[in-house]
Amino acid sequence: xxxxxxxxxxxxxxxxxxxxxxxxxxxxxxxxxxxxxxxxxxxxxxxxxxxxxxxxxxxxxxxxxxxxxxxxxxxxxxxxxxxxxxxxxxxxxxxxxxxxxxxxxxxxxxxxxxxxxxxxxxxxxxxxxxxxxxxxxxxxxxxxxxxxxxxxxxxxxxxxxxxxxxxxxxxxxxxxxxxxxxxxxxxxxxxxxxxxxxxxxxxxxxxxxxxxxxxxxxxxxxxxxxxxxxxxxxxxxxxxxxxxxxxxxxxxxxxxxxxxxxxxxxxxxxxxxxxxxxxxxxxxxxxxxxxxxxxxxxxxxxxxxxxxxxxxxxxxxxxxxxxxxxxxxxxxxxxxxxxxxxxxxxxxxxxxxxxxxxxxxxxxxxxxxxxxx
Length: 373
Ligand SMILES: *Cc1c(COP(=O)(O)O)cnc(C)c1O
Fold this sequence. Notes:
Blueprint: H1 8-11, H2 22-29, E1 35-36, H3 48-57, H4 70-80, E2 87-90, H5 93-104, E3 110-115, H6 120-127, E4 131-136, H7 144-149, E5 155-161, H8 173-180, E6 188-192, H9 208-212, E7 217-222, E8 235-238, H10 241-250, H11 258-268, H12 271-294, E9 298-300, E10 306-310, H13 315-324, E11 327-328, E12 330-331, E13 340-344, H14 348-370
Parallel strand pairs: 1-11, 3-4, 3-5, 5-6, 6-7
Antiparallel strand pairs: 2-8, 7-8, 9-10, 10-13, 12-13
Helix pairs in contact: 3-11, 4-11, 5-6, 5-10, 12-14, 13-14
Bound molecules: pyridoxal-5'-phosphate.
């Protein structure tokens, strides 16, 4: 096939690079024990109730799923005091980001994003020939004032990753209220709240209020992170009935699978598991912060289950040295942060393994550079 056949807007697209899978690292490096702290998954695994629901429903996968996901939407509606018309399910919130640009973005219209923020917003927008306006973060946090200044009559979407991936920072209720004030109704604001369940800061904004007021706002949440169901691919959007109706026009008829829907319903009934996960992350962060300080490393304090760390050396090298030692983290070169790595907070023994491997990795990189390799 000739490259010319590819659409113009796709030609310079760089595919999203996910965290390396454990099996791949084992295979490629001949390792037996590998831990993955690269994709902000829940190290405690899924809720036992979710596993049970998957088992119980496995015999019925010969049947197509309920494409609309009625029971899960109903459950979410109850949880949030909304109607099922306010809710849309997606094959991960990633898919909903795609559906948002497909539904709302005309070629040439502008999308305002933070830089660096979750890269999928830009990828998805480019597929629809949208124009990304990248607004630099301020102190590793979305600069909502600067983002608002970039709003024009060409703006169709604004993506706010709150908390932000890869920095782990959040914008406050006050900042969001000021941002929303007087915004034109010709654009839609997307609050990506993938790490919502990990937040315990009282200054975190209640964005559901905007949905209740009928504002052009879409909230994205997911079962991939605190709920530990990343492999099942299920997330959801909370928005106004008219926005949800629009999104449903582009939704694949069976976009979320039957087991994912059942597991998600069961997971919602296991708030104890979510609480356990929160506690693991809180303790894990305390431990990691203390160890990173001892190593003299700068990190960005995080409201999520991951930490962005400045290695003050090539982050990709550290990533590779950690890989050799069976620890997968994420190098941040793709986010224009070449000296940084991002690590997911895991269980105590995983965090310890990471710190031990990190010490060795730093040592090795230093030795190599002093011997001129
Ligand atoms: C992990 C993540 C998502 C994607 O979650 P899925 O539901 O698994 O697609 C979305 N946004 C942010 C900011 C994330 O970090």
